[in-house]
């Protein structure tokens, strides 16, 4: 079976996500992932090789056709599928941007981060402090991703003091309001905490 995926014009990590989903649907066969930039070519190729698949890349008119063969006797590493179970992870988000530097780039990277997070087991909790609370309010660029994580069991809590400071308490669209004591309890609990 051969399945073709058009990833032209898509920003990272969407070509990898689309390719991963297509491979999850196959017991064995070939997925041809078509990308139009070198970064996507490298990322999709690396993902497929790490998943134990055979990879062959062909360039045609500035586009890359990445033929990924799953099964058929090649050594296979299991591709992690998302499930309804949450992982023992707590994310502490202290900003509405990912990293320091240009704010618009940081916002774009945060969208990319959440799109990628949806491909992993859902974290047990996401805690939002400081400008991180902006991620869970109406018109947030990642509100759809937050809702999907909440549906999969992720608890989203937002600092009440921070919501008050930014005058956003009435705008909270996912999760619930919390306080510093609860945040501290989760920071010092048994789950692994990742701070962004």
TrEMBL record:
InterPro entries associated with the record: DsrEFH-like (IPR027396), Se_metab_YedF (IPR019870), Sulphur_relay_DsrE/F-like (IPR003787), TusA-like (IPR001455), TusA-like_sf (IPR036868)
The name this protein goes by in its record: Preprotein translocase subunit TatB
Gene source species: Desulforamulus ferrireducens
Domain (UPF0033) ranges: 5-29
Membership in a protein family: Belongs to the sulfur carrier protein TusA family.
Top-rank taxon: Bacteria
NCBIfam families named among the record's database cross-references: selenium_YedF (TIGR03527)
CDD domains referenced in this protein's UniProt entry, alphabetically: SirA_like_N (cd03421)
């Amino acid at each position: 079976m051969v399945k073709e995926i058009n990833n032209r014009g898509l920003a990272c990590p969407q070509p990898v996500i689309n390719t991963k989903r297509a491979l999850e649907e196959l017991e064995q066969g070939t997925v041809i992932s078509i990308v139009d930039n070198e970064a996507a070519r490298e990322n999709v190729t690396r993902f497929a090789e790490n998943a134990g698949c055979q990879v062959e890349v062909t360039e045609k008119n500035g586009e890359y056709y990445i033929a990924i063969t799953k099964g058929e006797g090649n050594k296979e590493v299991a591709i992690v599928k998302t499930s309804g179970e949450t992982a023992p992870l707590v994310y502490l988000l202290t900003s509405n941007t990912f990293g320091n530097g240009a704010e618009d780039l940081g916002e774009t990277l945060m969208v990319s981060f959440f799109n990628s997070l949806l491909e992993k087991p859902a974290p047990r909790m996401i805690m939002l402090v400081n400008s991180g609370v902006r991620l869970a309010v109406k018109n947030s660029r990642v509100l759809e991703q937050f809702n999907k994580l909440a549906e999969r069991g992720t608890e989203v809590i937002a600092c009440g003091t921070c919501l008050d400071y930014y005058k956003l308490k009435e705008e909270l669209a996912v999760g619930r309001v919390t306080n510093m004591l609860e945040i501290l309890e989760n920071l010092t609990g048994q789950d692994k905490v990742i701070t962004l």
